[in-house]
Amino acid sequence: MEVKLTIAAPLPLALSAGLGGLGYLSVTGPLPAWISPLALLAVFALAHRQASWQNRGLVMASYLFSINLLVTRSLFGLYSIEPAAIATLYALVILYITALSAVATATFPSTLTPSRILLFASSMSLFDRVCSDPDLLHNRAVPFSHGYYLFSPALSGLYAQLGMYGASFVIYAALLLGLWAFYHHRATGVAVFAIGVALAIVLSSALPQPRLEGYLEVNLVQPGIVGDGEHFVTRSEDYLRRELSPQLRGGALNVLPESSLFNYDFDTDHLGLLAHDNLLIGGTIRSQSLVYNSVVLLQKGRVTARYNKIFLVPIEEDARLQAGNERQTNTLRFGDVILGVGICYESSFERIGLKAVHNGAQALLFLSNTQSPPATALQLRSVQVRSAETGRVALFVGMAGNTSMTDAKGKVVWRMPWASSERRAISVPLYSGLTNAAHFSAQLSYILVAVTCATLVSLLWKGLHRKAERDHQGRRDFL
């Protein structure tokens, strides 16, 4: 029976690999976002029909993660800190644990074989890959699968070198190999496990690194405005008018948070006219009778670049705002510098960072006017994730607090206190070229999709050939 499983392993491995490639390409832009979950369901529906009883648990786990993915995508309200959202979140955690148990039941320990180890590692790293959009589930409740780099320097290096898909594959494979070695050899199992993990980390450090190309001078402004109900707009505007003073003139980029200025026209209203030099700010902008939540770059009082928010919060934003075109690039050009941008809760989406890097972003900026300290802290953790997986310095600029700078490894370098009114001049390191993780994943994704297609074509050809042989044999028997 084990021989049959080993022979059959290339098909599910190829399907898992192809799904990983499709998932990455849908996140970074070449393919529509709906391709990944649709392909996931279709492939595992096929796998359920083809699965033998040994790996039925793995297929059931796949279904659970498919449900996890679809539910998480449809319930963007998870980002609102409400009881229903928290209950849904932990329900998804239960699904996650159940799926792990199902896979473990199907593979551990006596039936564990190298082919099953590869199948398990490939599938589980794929699940980490697709279920991280949005990332809240991993950031808050399941730190092992997505937030492990925050807690271990060694795993941080592995994550930064290989990306989430590669790092989780190595971790799951090393974990199962360690269990397998320990089960069969006992005394040497721990040594084999430790050496394998150390070797993987050392080898990963040899991959190419992003190149430091220079620095961008930036003035970050945190108004420190919290609440104040109906006067929020007035206070925001008054503060911004004070900050748009001759003190901020010069060649530096002045970055302000997402403001509460609603239905604003920066080309005609007086805030735009006050922007004497270079100003990056977020707000709601009119455009041909539609209102967008946007990041705009103003130079000498005119909008020279703009990004419209793609992911709207369904509680209020989707009722009064228009979502931006998902195919647009979330990058703005400031002189010779390309900046990746996001607004509000968009930092929680993996495609925001990766898509920007694939379009040449040298640094990331996220603007927010969130008024809740826990929600802002959650946003900052998401910014750390975006920074670590792209190898880019990320700036988080908040209206109320937690304005901060995160280095290219996902570590917060400094942070402004909550509810403080501050301005800080900094030099932001700029990196060029794809990161090791992005470059590795991009090339691997195209290869995996091609290999998967070739595998499926080969299997189809063999199936048709066998059918033709059976038909021919049937005719001979009939005669």
UniProtKB/TrEMBL annotation:
Q: Name one GO biological process term.
A: lipoprotein biosynthetic process
What is the superkingdom listed in this entry's lineage? Bacteria
Any Pfam family: CN_hydrolase
- What EC number(s) does the entry state? 2.3.1.-
* UniProt keywords, alphabetically: Acyltransferase, Cell membrane, Lipoprotein, Membrane, Transferase, Transmembrane, Transmembrane helix
Q: What class of enzyme is it?
A: transferase
Q: Does the keyword Ion transport apply?
A: no
Question: Where are its TM segments located?
Answer: 60-81, 87-108, 162-183, 189-207, 444-461
Topological category with respect to the lipid bilayer: Multi-pass membrane protein
Give the CN hydrolase domain ranges: 216-432
Query: Where does the record place it?
Result: Cell membrane
Give the main localization category. Answer: membrane
The UniProt entry, under PANTHER family, shows: APOLIPOPROTEIN N-ACYLTRANSFERASE (PTHR38686)
What name has this protein been given in UniProt? Answer: Apolipoprotein N-acyltransferase
